[in-house]
C-alpha cells in the first residue's frame, strides 16, 4: 500500500533544489545549440520536475571535440597515476559530502528508494571512485623474453575518447562504474545519461569540476537515445563506446560502431536470469532471495532472477511461505523509510509491465498475488507472482523489467540446467542449495557471467560483472573493468651479445 499522508509529509521535506539542467561541455554548463529542452518527470507524482537541455548531434560534436582536445593535448592522460589518484580521491570525498542531495535527486527522478540511496548507491559510487583511484598508479605492462635475439615489453595506454551511455535504473552507480575506471586509465569522455534520469549525472559533472578534473575530460550531454546516443555511437572521433541497456539498443550501438570507425564496444544488456531452488534449501532463505531477486529496485534491474525454478519436493511449501511474505511487502513513496518498492520509472514502462501481466493471465499462468496498479497516483505496481508457468510462455522468455516473478517447477538437476540455459540471455544465475556438489555442478553448467550461490545481487567493485550470449560482452567493475579502457602496445628491440635470450 502507499502511505499517502505520511509520504506527502516526507516528500515536502526532502525535495532538493534542482541546480543543474544544462549540458556540461568543456567544463561549463551550457544551453543546447538548438535551445531545446525536455521535461524530466517525477514517477511518484507524474509531475514535471524540471526542463533539461536537450542535446543534439551538434552538441555531441562539441562535446567530442572538447574530449578529443583534452585527450590529445590536455594534461589528464599525461598526469602520473598518482596525480589522477589524488583528484579522484577528492571527487569521492565530494560525493560523500553531497550524499543526501544526490540520493534525493535519484529518488525524484528515478523513483529509487531514498534511504537505499543514502546507505548503498551514493556511498557505493564514492567507493568505486576510490577503488579505481587506487589502481591509477598501478597500470603496468610486462617485460617479455622473446625466442629470438630481441627483447620486448608492453605498454598499457588509454584507449582515448570514450562514450558512456548509461541507463535509468541505476543512474548513480552506472555513472561511477563507467566513469571511474575510464578516468583512472587516463581517458576523456562524454556521458549520455538516460533521458528519464539526467539530474544526478549533471550533479556529478559539477563535482568533477570542483574536484579539479581538467576541462573537457568529463562531458555530460542530456538527450534522447535516437538522437544524442546515435550521434555518440557513430561519431568518427570517439574511440570506444560503453553501453548498458536493452539488447535491442545494444544491436544498434554495435551497428553504428561498425559503420563508423570500428570503435571498440562494451555492452551490458538484458537478462532473464534463473534462481534455482533445490529441495534441500533452507526455505526462509530461499523465499527471501526470490523476493529480493525479483522486487529489488521495483524489478527494474537487468540481473533480476525473474525465472524462479523450484524443485518439486518443496514447491508447495515454497509457494505458501512466499505468498505469506509478499503480503508485508511495502509499496510506496521512496522517501518513506518503510517503503521497500517505489514507482516504476515512467508511464511507458508502467504500461509495458501491466501488459505483460495481462499476457501471463492469457497464457494460462496462475496469478498468485498482485497483478494490478497500486495506489491512486504515480507509476506504482503491486508485486506480482505467477505460478504454473511454462518455459514457452512470454512471461518466462521476455525481460519484463518490473516486479513480476514467474515460478516454474522442476524434478532433476539435469532438467533444470537444460531449462535454465534455454534462453538467449546469460547474465546471472542464483543457486540455492546446501549440497556442495550440486552448487559446484550447477555453477559450472549455467552459461552466465555471474553465479550467486545461496545469495543474490552480490555486486562489488572488486568483482567483474557482465554477460554471456545476448546479455552482452566485456565486463564492468573489478580490474577487468579497468583493462577495457587500455590499449596494449608491444615494443620490441634487438639485443646483441647477450649471454642468454
UniProtKB/TrEMBL annotation:
It holds the Pfam family Aldedh. This is Aldehyde dehydrogenase 1. It comes from Heracleum sosnowskyi. It catalyses: octanal + NADP(+) + H2O = octanoate + NADPH + 2 H(+). The active site is at 268. PROSITE patterns: ALDEHYDE_DEHYDR_CYS, ALDEHYDE_DEHYDR_GLU. It comes from the Eukaryota. Keywords: NAD, Oxidoreductase. GO terms for molecular function: aldehyde dehydrogenase [NAD(P)+] activity. Residues 29-491 form the Aldehyde dehydrogenase domain. Signal peptide: none annotated. Homotetramer. Belongs to the aldehyde dehydrogenase family. The keyword NAD applies. The keyword Cytoplasm does not apply.
Amino acid at each position: 500500500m502507499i502511505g499517502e499522508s505520511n509520504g506527502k509529509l516526507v516528500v515536502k521535506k526532502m525535495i532538493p533544489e534542482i541546480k543543474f539542467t544544462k549540458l556540461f561541455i568543456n567544463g561549463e554548463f551550457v544551453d543546447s545549440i538548438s535551445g531545446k529542452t525536455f521535461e524530466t518527470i517525477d514517477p511518484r507524482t507524474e509531475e514535471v520536475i524540471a526542463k533539461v537541455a536537450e542535446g543534439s548531434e551538434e552538441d555531441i560534436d562539441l562535446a567530442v571535440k572538447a574530449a578529443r582536445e583534452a585527450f590529445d593535448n590536455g594534461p589528464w592522460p599525461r598526469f602520473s597515476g598518482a596525480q589522477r589518484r589524488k583528484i579522484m580521491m577528492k571527487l569521492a570525498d565530494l560525493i560523500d559530502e553531497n550524499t543526501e542531495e544526490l540520493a534525493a535527486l535519484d529518488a525524484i527522478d528515478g523513483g529509487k528508494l531514498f534511504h537505499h540511496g543514502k546507505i548503498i548507491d551514493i556511498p557505493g559510487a564514492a567507493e568505486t571512485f576510490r577503488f579505481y583511484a587506487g589502481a591509477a598508479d598501478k597500470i603496468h605492462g610486462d617485460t617479455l623474453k622473446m625466442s629470438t635475439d630481441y627483447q620486448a615489453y608492453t605498454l598499457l595506454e588509454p584507449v582515448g575518447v570514450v562514450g558512456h551511455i548509461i541507463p535509468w535504473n541505476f543512474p548513480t552507480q552506472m555513472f561511477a562504474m563507467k566513469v571511474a575506471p575510464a578516468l583512472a586509465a587516463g581517458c576523456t569522455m562524454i556521458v549520455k545519461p538516460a533521458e528519464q534520469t539526467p539530474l544526478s549525472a549533471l550533479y556529478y559533472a559539477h563535482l568533477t569540476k570542483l574536484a579539479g578534473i581538467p576541462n573537457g575530460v568529463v562531458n555530460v550531454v542530456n538527450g534522447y537515445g535516437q538522437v544524442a546516443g546515435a550521434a555518440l555511437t557513430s561519431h568518427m572521433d570517439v574511440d570506444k563506446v560503453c553501453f548498458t541497456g536493452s539488447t535491442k539498443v545494444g544491436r544498434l550501438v554495435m551497428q553504428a560502431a561498425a559503420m563508423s570507425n570500428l570503435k571498440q564496444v562494451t555492452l551490458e544488456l538484458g537478462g532473464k536470469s534463473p534462481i534455482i531452488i533445490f529441495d534441500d534449501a533452507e526455505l526462509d532463505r530461499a523465499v527471501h532471495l526470490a523476493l529480493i531477486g525479483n522486487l529489488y529496485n521495483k524489478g527494474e534491474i537487468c540481473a533480476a532472477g525473474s525465472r524462479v525454478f523450484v524443485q518439486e519436493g518443496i514447491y508447495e511449501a515454497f509457494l505458501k511461505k512466499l505468498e505469506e511474505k509478499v503480503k508485508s511487502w511495502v509499496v510506496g513513496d521512496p522517501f518513506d523509510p518503510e517503503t521497500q518498492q517505489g514507482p516504476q520509472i515512467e508511464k511507458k514502462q508502467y504500461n509495458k509491465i501491466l501488459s505483460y501481466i495481462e499476457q501471463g493471465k492469457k497464457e494460462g499462468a496462475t496469478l498468485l498475488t498482485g497483478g494490478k496498479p497500486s495506489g491512486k497516483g504515480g507509476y506504482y505496481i503491486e508485486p506480482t507472482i505467477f505460478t504454473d508457468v511454462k518455459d514457452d510462455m512470454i512471461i518466462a522468455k521476455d525481460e519484463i523489467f518490473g516486479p513480476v516473478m514467474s515460478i516454474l517447477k522442476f524434478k532433476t538437476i539435469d532438467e533444470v540446467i537444460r531449462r535454465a540455459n534455454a534462453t538467449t540471455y546469460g547474465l546471472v544465475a542464483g543457486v540455492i542449495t546446501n549440497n556442495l556438489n550440486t552448487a559446484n555442478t550447477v555453477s559450472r553448467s549455467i552459461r552466465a557471467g555471474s553465479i550467486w550461490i545461496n545469495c543474490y545481487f552480490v555486486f562489488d567493485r572488486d568483482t567483474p560483472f557482465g554477460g554471456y550470449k545476448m546479455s552482452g560482452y566485456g565486463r564492468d567493475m573489478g580490474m577487468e573493468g579497468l583493462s577495457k579502457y587500455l590499449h596494449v602496445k608491444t615494443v620490441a628491440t634487438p639485443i646483441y651479445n647477450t649471454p642468454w635470450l
